């Protein structure tokens, strides 16, 4: 049974695309057939983070408009054969993203994949609402700061009212993925604490991703952090988040608590 | 500039809302025929429309502005005064005509005067029926309430002019509650709460933890900046005392 996940946040720059790639790769590493779909028409980035930018021929808009068949537009990852990418169009107008077209593509993807992960654009406009439209589960990516938390709250409201599942009267599963978390700064009060964010958003937490150079480096070399640097703390956190998405019951650990090594990194950065 | 600065009366103008029950007439085509039926109805009870607010519902009616104007005049000749027009296209309404109305909610049907054509002898009976309070006076009902057991998210607006709103959960920053009666929040109130919005000065706001952006009772409001800092984060009730919002913490 295919599961459609939307990775969304409202606010830009919180790590949606990075998280989509990392979660997608982590799920694919479990041997399950996964596709990551970029909905950010005009500002696509998922192809870069996945390291597939030089292999894009057709894109989501081409498939919607009937210029290409879905298998022609799908790009298989070179490192993981269970991982695929459906890129967004960089040149087309986002008006071409139609409700019917998206539904058709989603139905077709459901037939051949276990996981369909939709990378939502920032904002609450068409692209974002269409990305969440057919989702079964939402991963709400939030940074521990007030503006990101409020935007996430707004997005949760939309998930509960504007998705196909909500309109049918069902509840969409929502999970919080806290990214760019810096334990030392939260301790000093420069950032919201995990409990504060959870209290405001009141949805279950599936992972805390530490602010880390490994994530930035992985993005820049065009590889999801879960493939590029498997043993980094961020990769472990993403992999565990993917396990929780798949239904495994694991406690969420606060970054920096587990290993002294990271405590040193945080300590150095704080100085 | 000095004029503004030296102004002594700084009381804000209170903008109040009130809702009224109006009779809605939906004309059908051909209009002449419908008017005939209306005359028939009115003849059974003289003055049925007299002094009643009437709203004209023109949904699906293919008439021009001039034709609609003529309809309103013909109704005026029968002492039916139109206070507003519902479901009209902007092109159908012009200056000098009743304003367009939106957001109507259905209410109980009005009892039409004497259902069957009755002999003259029974006409007085129907007159009596009209005088009894049950026929068309607004019925006294228990104050209704709305219960929300999920958190109210930023950007959501819960509007309930009929009574109280109770939220079992938190109200996020950027969310809004508008109640005709009181507001109860069993969680943190971070957004806006407007109680007594239809002119109810006895409405109150209760919250488990006060972090509100704006509070209002009966049109009188207070922003977060005007609130006493010691109330922040506390269990609070707020009520109206004349022209001032009073607050008290629960211990």
From TrEMBL, chain A:
Cellular component GO terms, alphabetical: cytoplasmic side of plasma membrane; cytosol
Binding site for ATP: 11-18
Entry-linked Gene3D superfamilies: P-loop containing nucleotide triphosphate hydrolases
Residue stretches making up the CobQ/CobB/MinD/ParA nucleotide binding domain: 5-225
GO biological process: division septum assembly; negative regulation of cell division
Presence of keyword Cell cycle: yes
Key words, A-Z: ATP-binding, Cell cycle, Cell division, Nucleotide-binding, Septation
Molecular functions per Gene Ontology: ATP binding; ATP hydrolysis activity
SUPFAM superfamilies: P-loop containing nucleoside triphosphate hydrolases
Pfam families with a match to the protein in the record: CbiA
Oligomeric form and interacting partners: Interacts with MinC and FtsZ.
Function recorded in the entry: ATPase required for the correct placement of the division site. Cell division inhibitors MinC and MinD act in concert to form an inhibitor capable of blocking formation of the polar Z ring septums. Rapidly oscillates between the poles of the cell to destabilize FtsZ filaments that have formed before they mature into polar Z rings.
Family listed: Belongs to the ParA family. MinD subfamily.
Protein name: Septum site-determining protein MinD
Organism: Pararhizobium mangrovi
Name of encoding gene: minD
UniProtKB/TrEMBL annotation, chain B:
Protein name (database record): Probable septum site-determining protein MinC
Chain positions covered by the region annotation Disordered: 89-142
All copies of domain Septum formation inhibitor MinC C-terminal, residue ranges: 147-246
Record keywords, A-Z: Cell cycle, Cell division, Septation
GO biological process, one term: division septum assembly
Quaternary context: Interacts with MinD and FtsZ.
Family annotation (Pfam families): MinC_C, MinC_N
Function: Cell division inhibitor that blocks the formation of polar Z ring septums. Rapidly oscillates between the poles of the cell to destabilize FtsZ filaments that have formed before they mature into polar Z rings. Prevents FtsZ polymerization.
InterPro entries: CAP/MinC_C, MinC, MinC_C_sf, MinC_N, Septum_form_inhib_MinC_C
Family of the protein in this entry: Belongs to the MinC family.
Span of domain Septum formation inhibitor MinC N-terminal: 13-81
Organism in which the protein naturally occurs: Pararhizobium mangrovi
Compositional bias of kind Low complexity: 99-114
NCBIfam families according to UniProt: minC
Chain ranges passing through the membrane: none
């Amino acid at each position: 049974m295919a599961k459609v996940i939307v990775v969304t946040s409202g606010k830009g720059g919180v790590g949606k695309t990075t998280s989509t790639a990392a979660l997608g790769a982590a799920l694919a590493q479990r041997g399950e057939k996964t596709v990551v779909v970029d909905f950010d028409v005009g500002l696509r980035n998922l192809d870069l983070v996945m390291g597939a930018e030089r292999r894009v021929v057709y894109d989501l808009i081409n498939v919607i408009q009937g210029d290409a068949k879905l298998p022609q537009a799908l790009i298989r990852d070179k490192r993981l054969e269970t991982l695929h990418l459906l890129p967004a169009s960089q040149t087309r107008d986002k008006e071409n993203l139609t409700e019917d077209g998206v539904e058709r593509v989603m139905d077709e993807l459901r037939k051949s994949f276990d996981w369909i992960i939709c990378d939502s654009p920032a904002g609450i406009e068409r692209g974002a609402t269409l990305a969440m439209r057919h989702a079964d589960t939402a991963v709400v990516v939030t940074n521990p700061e007030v503006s990101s938390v409020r935007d996430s709250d707004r997005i949760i409201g939309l998930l509960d009212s504007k998705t196909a599942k909500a309109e049918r009267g069902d509840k969409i599963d929502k999970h919080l993925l806290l990214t760019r978390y810096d334990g030392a700064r939260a301790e000093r009060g420069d950032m919201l604490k995990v409990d504060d964010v959870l209290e405001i958003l009141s949805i279950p937490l599936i992972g805390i991703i530490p602010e880390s150079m490994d994530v930035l480096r992985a993005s820049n070399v065009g590889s999801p952090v879960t493939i590029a640097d498997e043993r980094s703390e961020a990769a472990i956190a993403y992999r565990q988040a993917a396990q929780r998405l798949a239904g495994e019951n694991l406690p969420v650990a606060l970054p920096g608590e587990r290993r002294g090594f990271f405590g040193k990194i945080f300590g150095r950065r704080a100085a | 500039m000095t004029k503004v600065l030296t102004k002594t009366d700084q009381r804000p103008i209170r903008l109040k809302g009130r809702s009224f029950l109006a009779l809605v007439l939906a004309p059908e085509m051909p209009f002449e025929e419908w008017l005939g039926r209306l005359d028939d109805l009115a003849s059974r009870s003289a003055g049925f429309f007299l002094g009643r607010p009437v709203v004209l519902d023109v949904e699906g009616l293919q008439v021009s502005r001039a034709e609609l104007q003529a309809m309103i005049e013909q109704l005026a000749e029968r002492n039916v005064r139109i206070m507003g027009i519902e479901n009209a296209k902007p092109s159908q309404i012009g200056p000098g005509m009743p304003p367009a109305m939106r957001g109507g909610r259905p209410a109980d049907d009005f009892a039409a005067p004497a259902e069957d054509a009755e002999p003259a002898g029974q006409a007085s009976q129907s007159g009596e029926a009209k005088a009894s309070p049950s026929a068309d006076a607004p019925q006294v009902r228990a104050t209704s309430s709305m219960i929300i057991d999920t958190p109210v998210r930023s950007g959501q607006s819960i509007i309930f002019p009929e009574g109280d709103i109770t939220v079992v959960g938190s109200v996020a920053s950027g969310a809004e509650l508008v109640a005709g009666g009181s507001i109860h929040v069993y969680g943190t109130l971070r957004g806006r709460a407007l109680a007594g919005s239809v002119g109810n000065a006895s409405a109150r706001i209760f919250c488990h933890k006060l972090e509100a952006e704006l509070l209002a009772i009966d049109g009188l409001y207070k922003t977060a900046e005007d609130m006493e800092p010691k109330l922040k984060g506390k269990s609070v009730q707020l009520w109206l005392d004349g022209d001032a919002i009073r607050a008290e913490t629960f211990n």
